Protein 1
Amino acid sequence: MAKVLVVGGAGYIGSHVVKELMRSGHEVTVFDNLSTGQEINLFQENRFIRGDIRNQEEIAAAMRGQDAVVHLAAKKAVGESMENPMKYSDNNINGSLNILNAMVEAGTKYIVFSSSAAVYGMPEKEEVDEDCPIAPINYYGFTKAEIEKFMGWYDRLKGLKYVALRYFNAVGYDADGDIRGREVNPQNLLPIIMEVAEGKRDKLKIFGSDYPTRDGTCIRDYIHVSDLATAHVLAIEKLMSGMPSQALNLGTGSGTSVKEMLTAAEQALGKKIPAEYAPRRPGDPAVLIASAAKARELLGWEATYGKDERGMVSIIRTML
Ligand code: UD1
């Protein structure tokens, strides 16, 4: 049992991580400023501190007595990060440094950091492993890559041990229905498809139909959020039993195109979902699929949700 501070624990991925940590018997405290996180995502028996990582004193006070940190507090809209990099410097970079400094001060040794496939930019290989060059093409991805480097230095200089989990495309919701908050104004494919299906939006715009893929639309590696959550618990436990610091990809290892995702959603919801082709979105790689072999080997982790179209249908059902 470890005392774990989950920073950003009221958010989409954070709330799922909290659930898995509690299920594994850890003592969890959530730290969140509720800017995008939601109160409805907090489990009652949890301790909750409303605070902001940009405030050094608030995060330092919350850190005292904690064995480990899961850090998921970040701005994550790729487009916005290109228009307003200052916001991303402040929240993602300054906020993360405050967390690392608070850890040193409190003697908290272990951190699991939510990184992203965005650190790879436009990878040359279709199946991306952790040795692919770090070359972000948007400011959001840049902030994640920099924080990974800061953690490397804090390991060398202060003995802090970290796992950077590079998520591919997180999707779905807790299948038991325990997590009820839904993202407000979502920017990602699947929640947008759901909003179109509910009539909140007119139609899905499919960004690009001329990519060199099997149906001309972009391919991504969609990984269920509860599978991501399990990996965080394993990462903490492995770190605490001596695993060295590292970065690990989290994905299923297989890809789904935008069109296939739309078809899967139509199947799951039993209705036609209006869609039209639109121009390519700048900065979108054609194919982005994880090699998750390293996470499998080091954490003994495996995605449980299926990888094909049927798997996507079952993921979409967790969103209903
Ligand atoms: C991006 C980031 C990822 C980050 C995530 C968080 C990159 C390469 N990836 O993922 O690291 O964690 O955002 O927000 O920077 N699409 C449409 N129509 C839409 C929306 C999306 O066709 O209305 C397509 C996109 O072109 C893409 C796929 O759906 O091919 C998935 O898009 P999205 O959900 O936005 O995620 P990524 O851009 O892959």
Note: Residues 76, 78, 116-118, 138, 141, 167, 169, 187-189, 192, 204-207, 218, 220, 258, 281, 284-285 surround uridine-diphosphate-N-acetylglucosamine (CB under 6 Å).
Protein 2
Amino acid sequence: MSSVSTQYQRVLSGMRPTGQLHLGHYHGVLKNWIRLQHEYECFFFVADWHALTTHYEETSVIAPSVMDNVIDWLACGVDPGAAKIFIQSHVPEHAEMHVLLSMITPLSWLERVPTYKDQQEKLKEKDLATYGFLGYPLLQSADILIYKAGQVPVGEDQVAHVELTREIARRFNHLYGREPDFEEKAEAAIKKMGKKNAKLYKELRRKFQEQGDHEALETARELLKTQQNITLGDRERLFGYVEGSGKIILPEPQALLTKASKMPGLDGQKMSKSYNNVIALRDDPKEVEHKLRTMPTDPARVRRDDPGDPEKCPVWEFHQVYSSVDTKQWVQDGCRSAGIGCVDCKQPVIDAVISEMAPIQERAEDYLNDPKLVQNILNEGAEAAREVAENTLEEVREVMGLDYD
Ligand code: TRP
Ligand code: SF4
């Protein structure tokens, strides 16, 4: 059984397999995951059920995307030795967690999640008035809570889903964290920490409850994380007891906001499949070169000797991601004086993008040639994930009264 201190350090994130990954995913999501995997216990999964909520009429894109996405994660440096990588539907515990949480979820909480209406508006061509789509954010809550993840790296658009998850966790703990003899059990647990720590815990608890001192609350939590002599159940009790509530069975996660990717698309908008402005991680170098050669520049530069303004040019945004200070200066001067042409200006970007992608594509090729290896990674990931998920579920079933042994 892992200790609360590692539990609360867990990081979990998922990605919907609905197409090819592109440079925006690499710079905006994957580089972040790759950094986190060395700092935390990480769980990264392909959310194939979430893809079904919007793609139930075109399910054929899902399976190839699942494999391609995983291969691209691996090729970019997500390390199966450091992070658990798996497919959501290989861990059916998520579904049981979802159904159990659905029992306590007020319909209005789901109806007011902004993505519910937004996506229905945006994806008008699809009928998203389904039970599955309404439950999308709750399924996400189940994904998160089943690992007791402390941090969830997501983009801006997903913050409301993490917020819902926090509310669900609070409601769950409120409903099922109560025990008839909670107070006695908590007091007994305090004693087990030893005189010094017990005294400190009580002091911090008083400071929080009497004066609302949040620093004391944090310190108390830190103190609990380091206690070796108490059981997991006692720790959950004492987490709750500082705040005056019941046991904290499902801890509230934090959104770890991924800064908006600096990766621009070929047209200067954010790189996104729906804007049709992407460089896919699998595009071959010829295609990459073609896309960059034909991308728009400052519209004021009609002829070679018209001066331009990098601020009005998407190529400049690529330079900001890829170029050295010197090259950027060369662009600024050359563009404004018409000293360089747009073809010249694009060359360093073309070179940089292609050389960034080369090792990724090479590694992807290795995985593509060895599907067994990818299967093994996914099987091992699912196995490790299920072990953690099953532990949480056992606890959840028990407190919900579904314990018939
Ligand atoms: N909804 C997320 C997205 O569209 C994907 C996702 C599913 C997810 N489950 C998750 C992200 C759990 C973080 C945690 O990007
Ligand atoms: Fe854009 Fe470079 Fe052309 Fe200036 S010179 S308009 S920055 S591509």
Note: Strands lie at 11-15, 42-46, 83-87, 151-154, 254-257.
Protein 3
Amino acid sequence: MNYTEISYEVLGPVARVCHNRPKQANAESETLLAELDHALECAKRDDSIRVLILGGVGKHFSAGHDLTDPMSTRARLTAAEDIWQWESEHYLGNALRIWDFPKPTIAQVQGACIAAGFMVANMCDLMVAAEDAYFSDPVNHSLGAAAVEVLVHPWVLGLRKAKEILYTGQRITAADAKEWGMVNHVVPRAELENFTLKLANQIAAAPPMSMRMLKRSLNRTADMMGFRNSIMAHFDTHQLSHASDEHKAIVEAGMQASMAAAKKAQNAA
Ligand code: ZN
């Protein structure tokens, strides 16, 4: 498959899959999500691949879902049936397929890692961040929706910090994220790719079958602590917030504004 919105590199035992829409701050479109899913499936089936790195080409990891995309590719998602089905497959589904990827995964993060970008990066097992990386989930403030679709925040930040960043919508720095346990390592931007690849190769040196069993066991531990049930429960609650008048009003205004901005940019080009 020829990818147009991601890159797929095989670096010995490591597959490096990157969001590749740098001009759009790596916003996740329908195509990008489909390609990401396809790449994961390929890396899963390829026995020579032992570790997967998930990154972004250019200045940013990902600014989140491409909110202009639904306007251009699908009918307006106003019915609960449509939103539930779309987000269940493409947002929750995509994210859980990263979580359930049978081999170790590392998020390689620079620049913006916002909303859905935050969500998919945190579905990886480990995270390496450049010093310029920043994280936020402003969706409650900006869209009137209850956070992003996958409430991974308490699991990677602890409940206290997760509540603070979600209530305020504030950005956190790579240094803060490391202090709070969400990020494993912070490195200078110029060293991000090499450092992450070195870490991946260190992991890839272990026997692959026992590594898969180890990840399975760790993820199952999270499930016994309630991970999957709480993720599924939040997804439905998130859907309820999509059905609210306050969310609909914000989306209406925001979509119109973003479409007008896109039109203006087209006219200027
Ligand atoms: Zn949603």
Note: The chain is about 55% helix and 15% strand.
